[in-house]
Amino acid sequence: MAGTMVSRPNVSRARTLPVLLGLAVLAQPALAEPPRAVVELFTSQGCSSCPPADALLAGLARRPDIVALSFPVDYWDYLGWKDTLAQPLFTARQKAYAEARSDRQVYTPQIVVNGLKPCVGSDWSKVETSIQSAGEGRATLPVEVSLQEEGGTVTIAVEEAASPAQAVSQAASQAASRPASARRLRGEIWVLPVLRERTVAIGRGENRGKTVTYANVVRGMTRVGEWQGGSARFQVPLASARGDADGYVVLVQSGDGAKPGPILGAAKGGGL
Known about the structure:
- The structure is a single chain.
- By secondary structure, the chain is of the alpha+beta class.
- It is 25% helix and 34% strand.
- The protein is built from 7 helices and 12 strands.
- It has helices spanning 18-27, 50-61, 88-101, 124-134, 165-175, 180-183, 238-242, and strands spanning 37-43, 66-72, 110-113, 117-120, 143-150, 153-160, 187-201, 211-218, 222-227, 231-237, 247-255, 260-268.
- Helix 2 (50-61) links the parallel strand 1 (37-43) and strand 2.
- The chain starts with 17 loop residues before the first helix and ends with a strand.
């Protein structure tokens, strides 16, 4: 099912013998691969067109270079089945994206890549093209985000990544016509509890009788603070970051909740 809704969003980480040190280094877990893209799927249990998109997102969730997130929305609940995972907050986020783009296109299944590029969520070719083009010459997102869990606290380290030669060249060519304030990256830090997987037996509505498995289902969003560029650290209780979910994701996103902009950085926490 696809449809269009037009409305404004509702705002709301001693001394040791060299050999032992080497073994210790080898024993360290591999560092997480910096993501190249964040893929958000707006989906609904009441949407007959959504299961293929849900399966597509589950595939993306297995890729180490992608942060894939499911945002179940509630605006199809009136069709006979109340989505058991939906939250009004997610509907508001999708509408806010449409408002920021000025196209007001809100439908399911809809994927938004890096907070910028919308496409039909079941169109694999279009989704992959959007992922490949989202970086604009970069192999990863422009802001590095690293996480350390210790003593029940998550420390979020944020730093602007070194630009590749192409990006440096582009920045230099544009510097004369852009004020320094406009060139500076900045954004809000958000923590999202995430269920790795949830299977739902749908009893009514367009998907009546189907059992659908949803991957990386977001259970909430908490604003931690504002990043003004450079290097910065933020802390949040692990219990708050994870909530009742399996893990969490951290996003650095420009704009604000009412008018979200490009996603600048992201990281997956433990459990994902």
